[in-house]
Amino acid sequence: MLQEHAKLMALFQAAGEVVGRKKLQKIVYISKKFNAPFQERYNFHMFGPYSEELTLRVEELNSLGFVEEVREQKSGYYQYRYSLTPEGQTFLNQHQSAIVGNDTLFCRLNDNSSKFLELVSTILYFDDLTEAEVRDKVHTLKKKQNYSDEDFEEAYAFIDELTHLH
Questions:
Q1: What is the pLDDT of residue 165?
Q2: Domain hosting residue 7, numbered range
């Protein structure tokens, strides 16, 4: 029961607080691409890969009192912070086998900005294309982000780093 929820709680346990809904979406998507056993399905949306299932699962965890969602007013928008509650920790302690061996991956992803993870997740979403095709696609789909050649180089280097974490 709640096995998929426990996997998400294990992410919060390892990574600590995750700031931003978009960032959480990207952390789970990228983790999944690197074989973390998340089951959420993703589609491509305005900010890159997005899972409605993940959004619902986080809402359920919040309703159950296992994950705390704090909404903060920023200049012109709201930002959300997510963390595991003591009740969530207790539940997770009873279901330790949820996810093992992904703590470094979760922490490494959480150390980056949501804008950077948006680029990385978009590159991974189009992993069936050549690097040149991916760059063209990103420049077309994410024109407002104005990603530079250096951003792409950093993203590809980061993907390579994540590949060697396992």
A1: 83
A2: 3-163
